[in-house]
Design a protein that fits this description.
263 residues, alpha+beta, Immunoglobulin-like, 3 domains, four-stranded antiparallel sheet, 2 helices
């Protein structure tokens, strides 16, 4: 009471919103007063919504204001802004087409809150190999890489790649997004095909016959056999030539000595 007769009192509201009832009694007579407890001035702003969004997609955010005791403050106008992409007055964000991050900001009643949103790649749209055509000599080779990208050119993670070829041989690396191609020892043309997630990409291959020495072209078991046969044939020819020269020298010496030539 603020007065000695108790007619003036000070009421302290609770820290939560709701209703309360005050009762005053005097000489067997009582009276009640209903009190509505409302939120105090806004003390903080909080943003709710997804922490990630695909490139070019939309997502909606909401803002809530609370007083010093955590009670929701209603009726305040919220202003929205975003560091990238666009956001409407209703909190609908259209993400930028480039992967990265976006900072969403909500302002109301002199208070402000921010939320960092991760912009990820959209769905796999196509495969992008490091080359679309390659030209090699027999016995040559090269390294190829591939990326799975969305419609905006962002790299899509978690893609599993399959490699195949109609000429030479292709050996994928452990990570799958690169492979070594060996042309082999036969010229011709063919195609390397890369597949992933229902998408395919092709690399046109042209292999020309090499003018390198035969030993440099020996890249398969078949060509090694031909190389060995060729070496043996050359060795046999040299041996026969040596024997013929030795026989001629022996015949010449016998003629000089007056001995009759062998029959």
């Amino acid at each position: 009471p603020l007065s000695s007769d108790g007619r003036i009192v000070q009421y302290s509201a609770p820290t939560t919103t709701g209703t309360d009832t005050l009762t005053v009694s005097q000489g067997g007579v009582s009276s009640t007063v209903d009190v509505t407890i409302v939120a105090g001035p806004a003390s903080a702003v909080a943003i709710s919504g997804s922490a990630s969004v695909a490139a070019g997609a939309t997502t909606t955010f909401t803002a809530s204001l609370t007083d010093a005791y955590g009670n929701v403050v209603s009726g305040a106008t919220v202003s929205w802004s975003a560091s990238r992409g666009t956001i409407t007055a209703a909190g609908v964000l259209t993400a930028p087409t480039e992967a990265g991050s976006v900072v969403v900001i909500a302002s109301a009643a002199g208070r402000q809150a921010s939320l960092t949103v991760d912009v990820t790649a959209a769905a796999l749209d196509h495969l992008a190999p490091s080359a679309t055509t390659i030209n090699l000599l027999t016995g040559g080779g090269t390294l190829l890489t591939v990326s799975g990208v969305d419609a905006y050119g962002n790299d899509v993670s978690g893609v599993t790649y399959t490699w195949s070829t109609t000429i030479g041989s292709v050996t994928p690396a452990a990570n799958g997004n690169s492979a070594s191609f060996a042309a082999g020892d036969s010229g011709g043309s063919g195609t390397i095909t890369i597949s992933a997630g229902g998408k395919t990409a092709t690399v046109a291959v042209s292999v020309a016959e090499s003018s390198l020495p035969i030993a440099r072209q020996a890249t398969t078991t078949t060509s090694l056999v031909f190389l060995i046969v060729a070496i043996l044939a050359i060795a046999a020819s040299i041996l026969m030539l040596g024997r013929a020269r030795a026989a001629r020298r022996e015949l010449d010496e016998m003629r000089k000595g007056g001995a009759p030539p062998p029959p």
